[in-house]
Amino acid sequence: MNLLYFLPDFNRSQRWGILLLLSIIFLGQIGIWSFNNIDSVSNESPEIPKDLQQQYDSLKKLALQKRQPKIYPFNPNYLTDYKGYFLGLTPQQIDKVSAFRQTGRYFQSKQEFKQVAGLSDSLFQKLSPYINIPEYKFKNNTHQHNHKQLTTNDMNLATAKDLQSINGIGPVLSKRIVKYRKAIGGFKDWSQLQKVYGLKPEVITKIQQKFVLKPNTKLIEKPVVKKPINTATADDLQQIYGIGEKLARRIIKYRESIGGFTIKEQVNAVYGLRPETIEQLWNSFKIAHPAEIHLKIDLNDANIKELAKNPYISYQLAKKIVSYRTLHGAFHNFADLLKVPDYPADKHKLISLYLKL
Fold it and tell me: pLDDT tens for residues 231-289?
């Protein structure tokens, strides 16, 4: 029997199309049934021995623990944004910590850190064993400064310890301010503080808020006992405002190269010494025992190399001196040297120290 005759309302092409569609549906159902059976079979895993399963679970747990970032002890007073994020803090909590530190304050306890940052109990419990806040960090804390008793609020009488009550001024900077004040004979205007090296504008503002400026204040200081400059140490020289460690070593090196200072003008030849610094230097030092000059070069008999041994005569200048002497004859006095072309008149006194006629 022809199956196509069961569909009398359709033509021959339509009947074949319906039959093909039914065949496809039938085959699809068979495929789905077969796939489900295969999947159910594949999901049936063989039973794993209990001891092997426990060993697998422990290894998996250990691997996950190693994958977790390790937390190291940290000081919240020096917490960076990256470190805060690593520890689990939100950007808002990191900003709170940063704002607290920008006021110049330090965290003094774990609880204070928790309160300021707004940490949850669970996060704080996790981080607490790793929070390390050394006590010595707070010897210059702003809170402690505010409770210090000042010796005076007069800027021209304030001690180094008084100045250290200002947040941003430590032992080195406070001594530098006192040294500069002594060098200029006391502050007469707040603008003079700008000349103190390392003193920031915001710190100057804090000084103005805490101290008063009395220009007429007479500094009570002990009489200055001048020290011999030829025996001064680097530490002695650094007591002068404007002379640091590097410049002090340079002065001593120069002093040794010329066998000691004989006259004050020799100090002027030290590279880097400013006129105002030299003036302050002689307020505290003196040439008690002028160095004896053993090298005396005969101006009329010395050749170029011998003249160049003078600490203040270069080889080029020695050539010019000898050329002038050859053309004009012997020098009658040291003043004749001023006629030599390109002769450094400002060093004439120093050059003459090492010459003889």
Answer: 999 988 988 888 888 999 999 999 988 888 888 888 888 888 888 888 888 888 998 88
pLDDT at 12 over 60: yes
Distances, alpha carbon 8 to alpha carbons 5, 11, 12, 23, 58, in Å: 6, 8, 9, 19, 72
Three-state SS letters, the chain: CCHHHHCCCCCHHHHHHHHHHHHHHHHHHHHHHHHHHHHHHHCCCCCCCHHHHHHHHHHHHHHHHHHCCCCCCECHHHCCHHHHHHHCCCHHHHHHHHHHHHCCCCCCCHHHHHHHHCCCHHHHHHHHHHECCCHHHHCCCHHHHHCCCCCCCECCCCCHHHHCCCCCCCHHHHHHHHHHHHHHCCCCCHHHHHHCCCCCHHHHHHHHHHCECCCCCCCCCCCCCCEEHHHCCHHHHCCCCCCCHHHHHHHHHHHHHCCCCCCHHHHHHCCCCCHHHHHHHHHHEECCCCCCCCCCEECCCCCHHHHCCCCCCCHHHHHHHHHHHHHHCCCCCHHHHHHCCCCCHHHHHHHHHCEEC
The whole-model pTM stands at 0.42
CA angle 10, 11, 16 (to 5 degrees): 90
How far apart CA 356 and CA 246 sit, in angstroms, is 35
Average pLDDT, whole number, for the chain? 80
Structure tokens of 321?
């001196």
What's the rounded Cα separation, in Å, for the pair 177 and 196? 6
Distance of CA 21 to the CA centre of its chain: 83
Buried b (16+ CB within 10 A) or exposed e, 266-285: bbeebeebeeebbebbeebb
The pair of structure tokens assigned to 348 is 């004439």
C-alpha 319, offset from chain centre? 49
Q: How many CA atoms lie within 13 A of 249 on its CB side?
A: 2
What is the per-residue pLDDT for 319?
Answer: 92
Which amino acid is residue 103, in one-letter code? T
Q: Are 296 and 356 in contact (CB under 8 A)?
A: yes
